[in-house]
Amino acid sequence: MKVFVTGASGFVGTTVVPELLKSGHQVAALARSDEAEQKIKKLGSDIEVVRGGLKDLDILKKTAAGSDGVIHLGFIHDFSKYEESCLIDREATITMLDAIKGTNKPYVQTTGTLMFQPGTLATETGDKSTSGLGTLRSQTEDIVVSYKDKGVRALVVRLAPTVHGKGDPNFVNMLINTAKKHEKSGYIGDGANQWPAVSRWDAGRLFRLVLEKGRVGAVYHAVGEQGVKTKDIAGAIGQLLKVPVVSIEPANAPEHFGFLATFFGLDSPASSKLTREELGWEPKEINLVDDIVKNYVV
């Protein structure tokens, strides 16, 4: 099938697109810049590049309508304007869903597992929290699922907050830069709180499986490790940088970590048991701690 992929040039998108091509699908990929277009072209010579961004609703509508399915990975990662980014994402999402309404085409939405009460195990069918960091994206997720009653094969993939691999520009890399700045790798309190993780390559395979085999209205978890203690993450970074590993008092965490303190202090384990059982997805790539030590660049 011809699949429209937003965020195709991103950290996860550049694993999803090769998975689709390898499985015989055609890809139309959204590119917001010349740099994004060049990244996409390196993934395959037959990819149709669609110039535009998440605010270009006419382009999203036209391309979604002209495709056999959609995988929406794109998101504006400006955490200083997180609410605005979430609302832009919601408008783009609804535009693409409306474009394929009544066609029974597959639509795969990307969200995250940080939608549950801290300290509880996030599952594919569990009750989400009605407040907190993930509220806006949780509401968008609910909108997506509602389109199962509007002739869309609506599907959701929740990514672990730590998607890791070589070239990671996100969470782990930010922690590494923080450790470089302070010349020590920190964790908050006793560091027993857990973060789920997934390799970007395992995540890429899951998106393809969900597109092809996902059950209408279902939610799936891209989680390779249910929970890695933040003390172990800090330890791996300390080993990588050869700096001390220290506990940061919770009261001092915002000063040390900046905005990351809000996220890094959460206890947010997540399960992918149902995803594995239903789709036969089995993560096989390197785990987070070993990946940091072996593959991240100082």
UniProtKB/TrEMBL annotation:
Gene3D superfamilies: NAD(P)-binding Rossmann-like Domain. Pfam families: Epimerase. GO terms for cellular component: cytoplasm. Signal peptide: none annotated. Residues 3-220 form the NAD-dependent epimerase/dehydratase domain. One of its GO terms (molecular function) is aldehyde dehydrogenase (NAD+) activity. SUPFAM superfamilies: NAD(P)-binding Rossmann-fold domains. This is LALA0S15e01574g1_1. It comes from Lachancea lanzarotensis.
